[in-house]
Structure to design on (334 residues):
């Protein structure tokens, strides 16, 4: 059984946009967080691709990754993930091959099979393209091919990209990507930070069916965990009303910017809505250092994952940085 000390800690950043700040503030804060993560010793920081969401500024994922890579020195940086149905595999390989050529051994490519947006925006992203989620395995294999050393008489070569051997992960919130990751022998990250329902089943399926590959000798699993850590449980619960409001608005079909915390959610949600938010955040760890430490140890005991990848939607950016600092304190002082 792993301990928190032997479990990798990583960060998933969506560059959340506050309702009182311009988008530029969020992009610059993403770099501030990346530098903070590098100093604290986090294993990696990933950015997620989402579109047509005014509260998320990481839509041009590869571009923002370049900004973070150019202004850090050792941190592994990647996508969590690139939503592959929105892109031609060759273009993705060239983008990440370019980043990997400029910043060797620091770039990772996590791939998802969902569009990461609403149906109208999905059609705008795929205009002129017929690809569907059913083509996801073929597209993943094509990207893996572009990252390998070029073969004799290879007709299409990703330049830059070919021979860079960029590490590829598969991401998912259901069983499909777990099965594909197992078949291809790739690391797997489950999106339990927003869709925890099938976590245990997906991990078991992945481990039971894993086939060793040139990429991995044995299964490697990470799971998404929303966290908010503060001086006291009460303060953390207060700060958590920001993401509660965000998820509540999503349930209502509204995808706005981050709102400041409120003293109480009473009167803002119905009983059914509260249950939906609780289900969304079933894996969330919210509280003081000791409370979150106990919660993470329970998750580790139950799922025995290799890595936690943490999200955090605290409104105050200083308190957000402090929360990630407290997380690493928990890891290092277990």
């Amino acid at each position: 059984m792993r301990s928190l000390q032997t479990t990798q800690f990583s960060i998933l950043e969506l560059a959340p946009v506050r309702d009182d700040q311009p988008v530029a503030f969020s992009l610059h804060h993403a770099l501030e967080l990346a530098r903070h993560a590098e100093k604290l010793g986090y294993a990696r920081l990933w950015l997620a691709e989402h579109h047509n969401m005014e509260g998320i500024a990481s839509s041009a994922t590869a571009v923002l990754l370049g900004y973070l890579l150019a202004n850090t020195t050792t941190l592994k940086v990647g996508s969590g993930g690139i939503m592959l149905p929105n892109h031609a595999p060759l273009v993705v390989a060239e983008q990440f091959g370019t980043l990997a050529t400029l910043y060797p051994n620091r770039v990772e490519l996590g791939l998802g099979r969902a569009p990461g947006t609403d149906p109208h925006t999905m059609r705008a992203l795929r205009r002129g393209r017929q690809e569907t989620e059913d083509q996801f395995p073929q597209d993943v294999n094509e990207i893996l091919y572009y990252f390998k050393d070029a073969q004799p008489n290879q007709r299409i070569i990703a330049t830059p990209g070919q021979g860079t051997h960029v590490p590829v992960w598969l991401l998912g919130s259901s069983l499909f990507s777990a099965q594909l990751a197992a078949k291809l022998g790739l690391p797997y990250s489950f999106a339990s930070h927003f869709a925890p329902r099938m976590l245990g089943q997906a991990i078991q399926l992945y481990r039971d069916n894993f086939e060793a590959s040139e990429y991995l000798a044995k299964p490697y699993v990470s799971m998404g965990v929303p966290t908010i850590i503060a001086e006291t449980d009460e303060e953390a619960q207060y700060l958590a009303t920001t993401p509660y409001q965000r998820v509540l608005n999503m349930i209502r079909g509204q995808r706005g910017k981050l709102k400041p915390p409120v003293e109480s959610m009473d009167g803002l949600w119905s009983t059914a809505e509260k249950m939906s938010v609780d289900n969304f955040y079933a894996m969330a760890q919210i509280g003081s250092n000791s409370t979150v430490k106990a919660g993470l140890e329970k998750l580790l005991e139950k799922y025995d994952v290799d890595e936690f990848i943490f999200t955090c939607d605290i409104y105050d950016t200083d308190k957000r940085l402090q929360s990630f600092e407290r997380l690493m304190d928990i890891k290092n002082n277990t």
Q: What stands out?
A: Residues 8-231+285-332 form a domain with the TIM Barrel fold (CATH 3.20.20.30).
